[in-house]
Model the fold of this input.
Amino acid sequence: MTITITAFDRSPDGGRGLARDTRVRWALEEVAQPYDVRLVTFKAMKEPAHLAIHPFGQIPTYEEGGLALFETGAIVLHIAHRFAGLLPDDANARARAVAWMFAAVNTVEPPILELMTAKILENDKPWTKERLPLVLDRMRDRLKQLSTRLGDAEWLDGAFSAGDLMMVSVILRARASGVLDEFPNLAAYLARGEARPAYKRAFEAQRVVNTRP
Ligand code: GTB
Done:
């Protein structure tokens, strides 16, 4: 059955792989599933045809036969359940990997997004200068906790899993802040994720789209 995902017609990041279709592409590459991509403009994202698939008018979405999904956590979990390669066989280890997926989107991503919002969308506000250090500290605290838990391990819980895929995807967006340099084990974790052949294929696929003339 053909898998079709949606992505920005042209990502505002110019191909740096920070838009959320990259994590879905990466998951599909890890499980060796071919996929089609439907590119959508910002305008088309808010029109009825796309809203029927994504209630919040965003990308990415995932379609496969009669199934249409939104939310990257749900999409990557579906891919991980449907195809081998992203979740361990042992039931307890599988549950822990899913916990890391939720931790990525629910606990680690929010303070990272908060910093991006403060820097990009609220940059012109008079209170931003005062607020920014607080937001930065909240992100730093969360990354410190993650760094402590990861320690010297290669991945978060044994072998690479969908939990790592989501966590690496999330903390990638913290790199521009420079805070990851304070946690060499997290920077190395990120580098291990980016070094995976499946990640490289996913990154290249979105780069080609977002740097086309
Ligand atoms: N919780 C949802 C999920 O995980 O799927 C969030 C989806 C989401 O935020 N999608 C964004 C979107 O469609 C694209 S990824 N935004 C358009 C809109 O809301 O109108 C967020 C994103 C956008 C741009 C950059 N960038 O340029 O660096 C990075 C990430």
Residues 11-13, 18-20, 45, 57-59, 71-72 surround S-(P-nitrobenzyl)glutathione (CB under 6 Å). The beta strands are 3-8, 36-40, 61-64, 67-70. The CA atoms of residues 147 and 183 lie 7 Å apart. The first strand starts at residue 3 and ends at 8.
